[in-house]
Design a protein that fits this description.
Number of domains: 2
Mean pLDDT: 80
Largest sheet: 7 strands, antiparallel
Order of helices and strands: EEEEEHEEEEEEEEEEEEEEEEEEEEEE
Number of helices: 1
Low-confidence stretches: 1-35, 37-52
Length: about 450
């Protein structure tokens, strides 16, 4: 059985997705890390539904058709039109013989960080009717690498319903969509509109945002936020003694390191008997797609040593997590803070009753392949222990640290590359070597457009 003296403090912190760390300095600073590797955009297909595109989408203009038309050149719009073409980027789309087209305009729509490009093409085919046009495109597209799709990125949202059986998707890079709209017949000609759309190539980079404050008392807080075009995956902390590490006249007990808002990470100190640079880190994803982040938390009562969890919903992937302890709570140690396959777990140790919250940041889409790697390391008497761990190729990194014995935890944060997570602990025992562990959470970005 281990004993936990009142002056012993443990802090554990974990955060997903590792990036680059700036040198600690007062005031907010930012570092942008190299582009994040990710899997190719995913291909999907579906079963057609019926109906029409939802109201509010940019409408395809209806082409006026005179009665009893025998040739497309009798319609003003197509009087001088050239051979039908879907234009650049859509050369694999063919039209019925003796067809003509004109551009009806280009536009773009953005939804949840993703911008789709659109083109509207008005076309006319001689010797055709509504059924013939619908059958032609259904047959030619599905045999040319396209799949019938129940969705279409109306208003930039790829989850919007197509509304009828005439939307198709090609999952090659770049991902493309085609929608057949407004098919009309007069005499022996058919007039219709193709709405074609191109998804962006997936891109992502990580940004480390940090803010430092010089503290000198109990329950001091420091917060840092991602920008409005970024998504906060997690956060971290570092306590730095301006006179040199390790602290020589007190131990540092952070009693909070958690997502205080969707895009803000907050660190709160415990009892500090001297000046200390306390830094909060926010790990921010700058990407042209959303990972659908949600925050889960579990409010608990603590009266002894226990592990507590905050759980993500079914199908979600944890990207980070932390804890907050009620100010003034007599908590002897936060023994662990690390990711699980379905959320986040924090290990507490206390000698008296207190309350706390466990927090988890959960991705609902576009992040997959959860893996946790745990590595122990030893810290000699009266020494600093530090360990950096990485994920294997193509993944992002986070760390969930926990320790045992006479160990004071004063840092859990990203280092100077995009592949490692750093843990700092101090063994204040003058005679005994103790073990600590660094846990790394590895996920893969895999966007679907």
């Amino acid at each position: 059985m281990r004993m936990f003296p009142r002056h012993w403090r443990r802090f554990s912190l974990a955060i997903p997705f590792l990036m680059a760390l700036l040198a600690c300095s007062c005031g907010g600073t930012t570092t942008t890390v190299a582009t994040v590797p990710q899997a190719s955009a995913t291909t999907s297909s579906g079963t057609p539904t019926t109906g029409t595109p939802a109201a509010g989408d940019t409408p395809a203009p209806a082409t006026p058709i005179p009665a009893s038309v025998t040739n497309c050149n009798q319609i003003g719009t197509f009087a001088s039109a050239g051979a039908a073409s879907a234009g650049s980027g859509f050369s694999d789309i063919t039209f019925p013989a003796d067809s003509f087209s004109v551009s009806a305009g280009n536009y773009s729509d953005t939804y949840a960080f993703t911008t789709y490009q659109f083109k509207l093409i008005n076309a006319c085919s001689n010797g055709a009717n509504v059924g013939a046009i619908q059958s032609f495109f259904a047959a030619r597209l599905t045999t040319g690498g396209w799949h019938t799709s129940t969705t279409f990125p109306f208003q930039g949202n790829p989850t919007r319903q197509c509304g009828d059986p005439y939307c198709w998707r090609n999952g090659s890079t770049p991902v493309r969509y085609v929608g057949l709209e407004n098919v009309q017949t007069s005499g022996s000609v058919a007039v219709y509109t193709l709405r074609v759309s191109t998804a962006p190539a997936p891109s992502a980079s990580m940004v480390v945002r940090q803010n430092t404050t010089l503290t000198g008392g109990a329950n001091q807080t420091v917060s840092v936020s991602c920008q409005s075009n970024e998504q906060m995956l997690s956060g971290g902390f570092l306590a730095h003694n301006p006179g040199g590490d390790p602290p020589s006249n007190a131990t540092f007990t952070p009693n909070a390191s958690y997502p205080s808002a969707a895009n803000t990470w907050t660190v709160r100190s415990g009892a500090l008997g001297y000046a200390l640079n306390l830094t909060a880190y926010a790990l921010c994803l700058h990407a042209n797609y959303s990972v659908g982040l949600q925050i889960a938390h579990n409010h608990i009562s603590i009266s002894s040593t226990q592990d507590s969890q905050a759980n993500c919903g079914s199908g979600m992937t944890p990207t980070g997590g932390g804890f907050s302890i009620a100010p003034g709570g007599d908590l002897g140690a936060v023994e662990s803070s690390l990711g699980l396959s379905n959320g986040w777990q924090v290990g507490f140790h206390t000698g008296s009753a207190s309350t706390a919250d466990v927090w988890a940041i959960c991705a609902t889409k576009n992040i997959h392949a959860f893996a946790q790697h745990l590595t122990p390391f030893n810290i000699g008497p009266n020494a600093i222990g530090q360990y950096a761990q990485a994920c294997s190729g193509g993944t992002l990194t986070s760390g969930g640290y926990f320790a045992s014995g006479y160990l004071n935890d004063y840092g859990s944060y990203p280092n100077g590359s995009a592949t490692n997570w750093l843990t700092n602990v101090w063994n204040e025992s003058l005679s005994t070597t103790f073990a600590a562990s660094n846990a790394v959470l590895c996920n893969t970005l895999s966007p679907t457009f």
